[in-house]
Each structure stands twice: as C-alpha cells, then as structure tokens.
C-alpha cells in the first residue's frame, strides 16, 4: 500500500498554512479581546461611510450570517451600532469603536511584520499576491 502525500493536496497545504497564520493573528488581536475578523470589521468601518451588513460581508468575503454574529458581539461590547434605515440596516462605529482604531492600526502593522519575519518581506508580498490573484481568478469562474 502506498502512502498518501497530503502535501500534494491544495486543500491540505492551504489549510495547514492557514492554521499557522491564524494562530499568529489570533494572538495579536487577543490583546484587545477581539478575534481577527471582529478587528477587520471595526477597521473597515473606520472610513466613516454608512455601511450595510451586506456590504461588510462582500468587502470581507464572509457570509452574511457570519457578519451578523460578529456584529451582535461588537454591538454588545458597544463598539458599533446598527440603525434601521427603511428596509436596510446601517452599521457605524461608536465612540468606543473609534477610540480603538489607533490600537487596531498598530496591531495590524505588528501582525504584518510578524508575517514578514516568518516569510521575509519579499516572501510575504509574493505569497499575498499569489493568493489574491488566485482568489480573484477563482471568484470569476
């Protein structure tokens, strides 16, 4: 019986690497009691534009149900508010959410430096570029 080399499988290789990257990201944002996804939602709201949950889901490539769960938690922590606007909902940062932005920006920069130390600056940029291109190509099909 021949042994299966799971490293020959894109799913296995990408999931294995994702676990490594996720661990680093989780540790980084845990400093402020947030998951990486919650932090990304807050950072994406920092522009001050009126944003719907659907737009957040599209911007972050997440399911709408996932966004709703995160928004529930962020609203409980008084970092965001959701306001009904006719048939839609608008999500905005609260004062607490706005005050957290400089810290999130610093954690984001620290996180990217962690990835660059792990992969080198050029390696991180190259891998990120390949992943973004592959995602866009796959999404178009």
TrEMBL record:
Question: Cross-referenced Gene3D superfamilies, in alphabetical order?
Answer: Winged helix-like DNA-binding domain superfamily/Winged helix DNA-binding domain
Q: Note whether Acyltransferase occurs among the keywords.
A: no
Single GO MF descriptor: DNA-binding transcription factor activity
Q: Which CDD domains match?
A: HTH_ARSR
Q: Where is the HTH marR-type domain?
A: 7-136
Q: Name one Pfam family in it.
A: MarR
| PROSITE patterns from the UniProt entry | HTH_MARR_2
The answer to whether the entry has keyword DNA damage is no
Cite the entry's keywords alphabetically.
DNA-binding, Transcription, Transcription regulation
Return the PANTHER family for the record.
Answer: TRANSCRIPTIONAL REGULATOR, MARR (PTHR42756), TRANSCRIPTIONAL REPRESSOR OF EMRAB OPERON (PTHR42756:SF1)
Protein name according to UniProt: HTH marR-type domain-containing protein
Q: What is the lineage of its organism?
A: Bacteria, Bacillati, Bacillota, Bacilli, Lactobacillales
